[in-house]
Design a protein that fits this description.
about 450 residues; alpha/beta; eight-stranded mixed β-sheet; three-stranded antiparallel β-sheet; 15 strands
Length: about 450
């Protein structure tokens, strides 16, 4: 079963370490079955409970997976596999449309906000034992949430969206549980879920968000959580419409124990209204990041949810990082209160570039998608070839493999760096690099 490799150890930690070393060195390959627990216990001369504890540790670390009577096997994809490594190296002279960053020209200046925050901190420094959330930030965030119809709930601050998602998942789920995620979807999230020892269930996406039948199927098959991107979905630009929100609420209403997480990272860069699903299930959370509107390096997101979820997140944060810098929080308050981001203008700027590229591609017989945000998704028959040909033509785009599980091939173009005069040139290059891909669905 294991070829030449022999698992060693007398204690659970030693057995787990032996397996993990072999996986890391390649002596145990992805998908390779492990011995039944009683068989390995007999071979090692230990109690079966010791082997059971070792296997449990390996499952929690995402090294192996167990499927009932079929036994345990090395995960087909290590939990630490990083989709960020599936990227194109951009050589000199090639335009970068792959990185997913906001337009620098649309980000607000930070010097004044941080100077004001630092002056306030000089007068009133934050010390141990004080509140983790800047009161004015909580007030501003809650006012925006109320205006968008998000149910009432406490607010906590995290170090960005991914930190918030990790904390909420860890607050409710255990290794081996299944999370329904969008496909195509955010590569960081698709890495995070297995890194937590959780399984993924793919949910298809179209222009209006997750497809209700796919969500229903995933929940009926045992998924305990669902993660939805409300607007500016990465990579497709999907945004949940009013009709789609009603359909998704109906599905979730049949599964009230589902942990619902909404990622609204498009807040303050899109002009489409929010249609929240929050409150449909017993436990829910909605997160809004400052990254796209105010700058990725702020590493700040606000999270609200039901009281149990937020209390668990806050409690775990207190025994770890403690809090997100109140200095940063105060700077964000200043930016937010001063309306440093002209939301209609920012949304219109990204919208003109998205629409311009999609229309230009349509004129050339290439179908593309991008209802909101800063990305355009283009289904292609040959992802590797399309990326290579575009790179040769002087344009770096993101390979769809960074964002896909079961969805067909595609490429993502970030429009942030495009000027009006670039659009026809990019469309010509894409049309030369790909064949038309019919169909309105991404899966």
């Amino acid at each position: 079963m294991l070829g030449e490799y022999r698992i060693e150890g007398r204690r659970a930690a030693e057995i787990a370490a032996s397996v993990e070393r072999a996986v890391g060195s390649g002596e145990l390959r992805p998908g390779q079955p492990l011995p039944p627990m009683r068989e390995l216990a007999l071979e090692l001369g230990v109690n079966p409970n010791t082997v059971a504890a070792a296997y449990r540790t390996l499952r929690e670390r995402g090294v192996i997976e167990t499927a009932g009577r079929r036994g345990s096997r090395v995960r087909s994809k290590p939990a630490t596999t990083g989709r960020e490594y599936i990227r194109v190296e951009v050589p000199p002279g090639v335009r970068n449309l792959a990185d997913g960053n906001p337009d620098r020209a649309l980000l607000p200046a930070l010097a004044g906000a941080f100077a004001a925050a630092a002056a306030l901190s000089d007068r009133d420094p934050v010390l141990y034992g004080e509140a983790a959330v800047e009161p004015e930030l909580a007030r501003l965030a809650r006012a925006d949430l109320d205006a968008d119809g998000v149910p009432d709930g406490p607010v906590v601050v995290t170090s960005g969206s991914l930190d918030a998602l990790e904390r909420v998942l860890a607050a409710h789920l255990k290794p081996g549980d299944t999370v329904a995620v969008e496909d195509p979807g955010w590569g960081g999230l698709l890495d995070l879920v297995p890194a937590l020892g959780l399984r993924t269930a793919a949910v298809g996406v179209d222009d209006e968000g997750p497809i209700p039948d796919d969500v229903r199927r995933a929940l009926e098959n045992g998924a305990r959580a669902l993660i939805v991107t409300d607007r500016a979905q990465n990579p497709t630009g999907a945004a949940v419409s009013a009709a789609r929100a009603r359909a998704l609420r109906a599905v979730l209403g049949q599964h009230p124990q589902t942990l619902l997480i909404e990622d609204d990272h498009g807040h303050h860069i899109v002009d489409l209204p929010l249609h929240p699903l929050a409150g449909t299930t017993r436990h829910w959370a909605l997160v809004r990041s400052a990254a796209k509107a105010y700058g990725p390096d702020l590493r700040l997101a606000v999270l609200t949810g039901d009281s149990v979820t937020v209390d668990r997140v806050r409690g775990r944060q207190q025994v770890g990082a403690g809090w997100v810098s109140r200095l940063v929080q105060r700077a964000v308050v200043r930016l937010w209160a001063d309306r440093a981001v002209d939301v209609p203008a920012v949304a219109a700027s990204y919208g003109r570039r998205r629409a311009g590229l999609i229309d230009a591609l349509a004129e050339r017989g290439v179908e593309a998608y991008g209802r909101s945000g800063m990305n355009v998704w283009i289904p292609v028959p040959d992802e590797t070839g399309a990326v290579a040909r575009l790179l040769h033509a002087g344009w770096a785009v993101a390979p769809g493999a960074r964002f896909r599980m079961n969805a067909p091939p595609g490429i993502r173009i970030t429009v942030s760096a495009l000027a009006p005069e670039d659009i026809a040139r990019v469309a010509d290059a894409v049309a030369s690099a790909v064949a038309p891909a019919p169909g309105r669905r991404y899966v």
